[in-house]
Specification:
CATH topology: Rossmann fold
Strand content: 15-25%
CATH architecture: 3-Layer(aba) Sandwich
CATH class: Alpha Beta
Number of strands: 7
Radius of gyration: 14 Å
Largest sheet: 7 strands, parallel
Helix content: 25-40%
Shape: globular
Number of helices: 5
Length: 161
């Protein structure tokens, strides 16, 4: 049995309705492919991605900024209480095999930058496009397809395990 793909979904804690629905769809599509959704565990894009995964019967791992696991949104399957504040952004992107960024603010920008530092590719869906490690997508479906394609190209995807 092959190990699942971990997809980190990052974005603002206060998402627009469009960002929320895009992130929810991404979570659902990742779960339907047998992947694990990794997120920051709180609201907005993080909640939406975890919700999509949960609704599809998948797993969502939330890496929280503080010491209180009970603060995780209700869709998180497993919560990690990091106790390191915003520095948890590094754990979120390093845990994923690939990162999908949906909208976002400066916290999301830090995650996109950190992803580049730790060698993770990023698919940007209406988010930051900074660095050679970032590719753009126009829809949730395209974002997930690109994420899994990037991993296959790098020999890390499900087809290569």
């Amino acid at each position: 049995m092959s190990a699942p793909v971990y997809v980190s979904v990052v974005g603002a804690g206060s998402a627009t309705d469009e960002e929320y629905e895009r992130a929810r769809e991404i979570g659902r599509l990742v779960a339907e492919r047998g992947g694990v959704v990794v997120c920051g565990g709180l609201g907005g894009v993080m909640e939406a991605a975890a919700r999509g995964a949960a609704e599809a019967g998948g797993v969502a791992l939330g890496v929280l900024p503080d010491e209180d696991r009970s603060r995780a949104n209700p869709y998180v399957t497993y919560a990690v209480a990091s106790g390191v504040g915003q520095a948890r952004n590094l754990a979120v992107v390093a845990t994923g095999d690939v990162v999908v960024a949906v909208g976002g603010e400066y916290g999301t920008l830090s995650e996109v930058g950190l992803a580049g530092k730790v060698g993770r590719r990023v698919v940007s869906l209406g988010s930051w496009d900074v660095g050679d490690h970032v590719v753009r997508a126009a829809s949730a479906e395209e974002a997930v397809e690109r994420a899994f394609s990037l991993l296959r190209e790098e020999g890390q995807g499900p087809a290569s395990r």
